[in-house]
Amino acid sequence: MTELHIGLLAFGGVAVVGVLAYNKWQERKHRQVAEQMLRPSDEDVLLDGEEDAVEEEGEEEYAVLIQRDENGEIIRAPQLAQRKEPVFEAEADPAARQEPVFNFDDEPAPAAEPVYAAEAPRTAAKATPQSALDFDAEPALAVKPAAPAFAATQAQGALSIDPIAMPLREAAPAVAARAPASEMPAPGEAEAPRTLMAPALPTFLLSPAADYIVALETVDFIPAGQFMQSQREALLRIGKRVTWVGLNEGSGEWEVMDENSPQEYRRLRIGVQLADRRGAISDAELSIFHTAMRQLAEEFMAVADLPTRKSALEDAYELDRFCADVDIQIGINVVAVGQLFPGTKIRALAEAAGMVLEADGAFVRRDDDGRVLYTLSHQSQQPFTAEAMKTLSCHGLTFLLDVPRVPNGDRVFNQMGDLARRFADSLHGVVVDDNRQPLTEALLEPIRKQVAQYQGAMAQRGLVAGGSLSLRLFA
User: Helix (H, G, I), strand (E, B), or coil: what is residue 388?
Assistant: First the structure.
């Protein structure tokens, strides 16, 4: 190692020591300054010290606060000594307080009518139905259990039925078993349903007791076809009836919308039926309808009123249970004892009684309003045809009464019973039940009373047997 290397090492060591010493000195100096600044003071700079009143030019007065620093130098900070608030001089007695008074010569203009008005939540009549209606009847007339869940009559072989009142389905299970878990209203979904201002909607078109109804209102008039085509694909996935109703602004009346009509609407009511003979609407179906209506409102920039789905599902399950309890058909059989019944004679007797052979293969008796009262069909469910009646021979016939769809069911039952006996006399047959036991007038009378009691229970619920709403629910 040369002397140059040794010198450079020595110089570097001295430089390092010098830098460390300088840093130490700077640290000590700043520590002292910080301690002086943070040292607690016994003096209150706001209360103690000398104050000199100094009157500046103008109307404001200031007090000069004198404070000395650590070096004894005087620091002066001007501070507002007195704040003057503006004073409004009153002509009256200053001690009396006067409130401002607004004098108007005219009455204020009435508030404008609101564009929309909220109605109370739907309050469909909810009579508490019994799980099985307990009617006073003979033990032999007890209701027999049948196929479950509001089944269609043809699928259950209802054309060959005991005259005893047989339900077409079992009651739906309890709400706790079928209703979905509690859900919060979706965004845009009202907590309680309300109705946009419009004339009252006739219940024969849509009824809160049987339909989930959505109200829509647009700014512009839009053809019916555009509305109904918008969500067609989604609504086809729903197994329940969907009804479109629009307000005809010209007549001021609600009417069923026709997709092919040029009529334009801006106020709509769209409803999906809550129950029918296949059962209650499902949560999935109601969700599809609910979503489709929201998208419809967004597409046409409409104001929408969508009731909560949870409440509608509960109503649907309760309505389905009630309908299951009263959904019965009464059948009276006329069977041959020896000779078969010729088709030509059956047709002649039926037409003489005012019955008409219809496309479904049954003779139908209707009232003056076109409602079906009862039907006559082949006991083996083989359909009648005009051509086949010429050569047909059968062992038995069945008269059928659909209790929820017939007005004044007890009287219609009496008429049907009388016609069955006339057929039996003319065809040399006998009136029997499904067990081929003869039916006398004494046995038919309790059934007539049962029909009246079932229809009475429907009336208490707000469902008129044979009415438009009942025809929809029991379809």
Answer: helix
**What single DSSP character describes residue 403?**
G
Give yes or no for a contact between 161 and 331, defined as CB atoms under 8 angstroms apart: yes
Question: For the purposes of burial, counting CB atoms within 10 Å of the CB of 123, is it exposed (0-12), middle (13-18) or buried (19 or more)?
Answer: exposed
| Residue at 163: amino acid letter | P
The structure's pTM equals 0.59
Calculate the CA dihedral of residues 132, 133, 139, 144 and round it to 10 degrees: -50
Does pLDDT of 420 surpass 90? yes
Give 222-233 pLDDT, tens digit per residue: 999 999 999 999
Q: What kind of fold does domain 147-169+327-473 have according to CATH?
A: Cell Division Protein Zipa; Chain: A, (3.30.1400)
Contact yes or no for 392/462 (Cβ under 8 A):
no
What lies within 8 Å, CB to CB, of 154 at 6+ separation is: 381
Partner residues linked to 222 by β-bridges = 265
Residue 37 Ramachandran class (φ > 0 left, ψ -120 to 50 alpha, else beta): alpha
Domains 147-169+327-473 and 190-319 share a fold: yes
pLDDT tens across 176-207, in order? 333 333 344 444 444 434 445 567 899 889 99
Query: What DSSP letter does each residue of 404-457 carry, written as one string?
Result: GGSTTHHHHHHHHHHHHHHHHHHHTEEEE-TT--B--HHHHHHHHHHHHHHHHH
**355: exposed, middle or buried (Cβ count in 10 Å: 0-12, 13-18, 19+):** buried
**Strand duo 393-394 + 372-378: pairing:** unpaired
User: 303-336 burial, b for 16+ CB within 10 Å, e for fewer?
Assistant: ebbbbbbbebbbbbbbbbbbbbbbbbbbbbbbbb
d(CA 153, CA 372): 15
Domain borders along the chain are 48-80, 147-169+327-473, 190-319
Residue 242's identity, in one-letter code, is V
For residue 24, which amino acid is it?
Answer: K
Residue 73 to residues 66, 67, 69: CA-CA distances in angstroms? 10, 8, 6
For the chain, how big is the Rg over CA atoms in Å?
45
CB 431 within 8 A of CB 420: yes
Q: Could you give the CA distance from residue 36 to residue 32 in angstroms, rounded to a whole number? A: 6
- Architecture label for domain 190-319: 2-Layer Sandwich (3.30)
